[in-house]
Amino acid sequence: MVSPTSTATPIPAPMIDADLKKLMRSLKLGRMLDTLPERLALAKQQSLPYADFLSLVFADEVERRDRTSADLRSRTAKLDPAMRIETFSSDSPVRYDHEIWNELCSLRFLDHARGALVLGPVGVGKTHLATALGHIAVRRRHTVRFLRADQMFRILKAARLDNSVEAEMRALARVEVLILDDFALQSMDPTETSDFYELIVERHQKTSTIVTSNRDPSEWIAVMSDPLLAQSAVDRLVSTSYELVIEGESYRRRQRPQTTRAKSATR
Length: 267
Description:
Layout lengths: L17 H9 L9 H11 L3 H27 L21 H9 L1 H4 L3 E5 L6 H14 L4 E5 H13 L3 H10 L2 E5 L8 H14 L4 E6 L3 H7 L3 H13 L1 E5 L5 H4 L3 H9 L1
Parallel strand pairs: 1-4, 1-5, 2-3, 3-4
Helix pairs in contact: 3-6, 7-8, 8-9, 9-11, 10-11
């Protein structure tokens, strides 16, 4: 007969004195109260020296503040919180150069004001991977802004109505990592073509631009109204950017409910 395994009785988390709570809140350390009881219990259980205990609780607070700050900056950058490296499906059948991807994730390309072109058919995860790079950059305290290309052009057109287009363009030029999603999906009028040219020229070799597109860069010129401006902008962007090509089946198509697939197969 096997005897039941004995388990150690956990040490209950101690109560925090009201005066200590007041002092911590006065020092703007009130959020440490969320984990302090458990840390005190751990310190008692493991007989931690005072210095080690202080290092532990302060490390908790630094990590919490860094996480909160990164979350705030991600929201300001308009990054989708669900599109991070850890949420990209590891069993996805899409194919891409993992050596290039690992290099991009290192963010070394930011040190040299280089960019990244994330290319491939609809639904393979281009936006997800570009956004994931944005989250990494935010965590490393770079300024980031995410915009769909059509949104950016609408913002610039609206800025012309109140004479703020120069300020808007300066803001776009200064941001350290600008992510332009779904570029060259549709034809660009003369104003959009001119704005794109001006933006790329201002950012060239100064800041980093990440572009996603389901068209090859050689096709971008055809959707712009001025071939000379288009060629000049595209050449600057392509010559200073890594190119990550993603191939495979649409991720969205694989997410369809199984019943939908079954019904489609019987039709």
